[in-house]
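Subject: endopeptidase La

B.,
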Amino acid sequence: MNGVNRRILTLLVALVPVVAFGVLLSVVQVPFVSLGPGPTFNTLGEIDGKQVVDIEGPDATVHPTSGHLNMTTVSQRDGLTLGQAITLWMSGREQLVPRDLVYPPDKSKDEIDEANTADFKNSEDSAEYAALSFLKYPMAVTVQNVTDPGPSAGKLQDGDAIDGVNGKPVANLDEFQALLKETKPGDKLVIDYRRKNAPPGEATITLGDNPDRDYGYLGIAVLDAPWAPFDIEFNLANIGGPSAGLMFSLAVVDKLTTGDLNDGKFIAGTGTISGDGKVGSIGGITHKMLAASEAGAEVFLVPADNCTEARSAPRDGLELVKVETLEGAVDALKTISAGGEPPRC
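Prediction pasted inline below.
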C-alpha cells in the first residue's frame, strides 16, 4: 500500500467516529423537554381581529383602555434530538427538564393537552367570577355547564342565572339543591332564568334519572357566582394551563371601570386566580419574566409564593410587584400610578 492510500485510509478511519457522532446528534432523541420564554399577549389588545377580552352587550359599559396588561407563557419543545438539546441548553435561554415531569408516563400527550385546555377554560371562568365579584355584581345560582345530551340541553345555557323553581325563588345553591332533592325522575320542573344579552325566560324540563342519585336529574352543573347581564369572552386559542387568570381578571376590571389601571404603562404578569380573587403560584416564573422583559414590560406582577424564585433571576430593570389577591393587584397598580411604593418581592 502506497503512502497516498494509507493517508486516505487513515482519514476515513478518523472520520468514522465524527460521522457517527453527527448521526447521534441529528437522529437520537433524548428524554428531555425544553422550557423557555414563550409569547406574551396584551389582554387589553386584539388578536386575529378580536379583542383578547371581549365584553359585549347592551348593558355593558366598556371604557377605553391604553398601555399593556400582558399575560405571559412558557414555550415547550418536545421530541428533541441530542443536537437540538445541546444547542438549546448552550443558549442559556432554555431549561431542559426530564420529559416525565412534563408528560407523566401514565398519561398520553393527548390526555395531558386536554387537561391543560380544561385548566385554561376553568381559569377563564374563575377570572370572570373574580372580576365581577371585585366589581360588586350580585351573586346568583349560575349554570356553569349543560350536559348534552341531557334533560336541559337546548333549554338552559352556560351562564344562565336560575331565579326560581316551580314558582319558588332560589337565592343560592343550597336552596336550589334542596328543591331539586324533593323531585323524582320524570317530574317536570319550571325554571325561571335570566340569560345574558336576552330577556328573562322560563324553561319546562322533564327530569331524567341518574344512578348516582335517587332524585331527578337536571343535567346541569351550577354554582353560586357573581352574575352580570352581558357576555365576557376570552379569545385566546392554543394556550393551556391556568396561569393567565390574574391578567384576564385585571383586563375585565380595567375595561369595566373608568381610568387606566396601568396608567398607560407596560405591565406584565402571571398567576392563577380563584373565583374569590386569590392569586396562586405558577410554574416557569423565570421564563415568563424574561419574555416580559424582552417584550418591553416595566412592571411584572408576581404571585407571592413565586417571589423567592423570581428574585433569583436576572431582572434587567423589571420591577417585581408581589400580589396575593385581585384586590391587592388593583391596589398595587393604583399605587404605582400615583408614584407610591407597591408591595415588592
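The chain has nine helices and 18 strands.

T.
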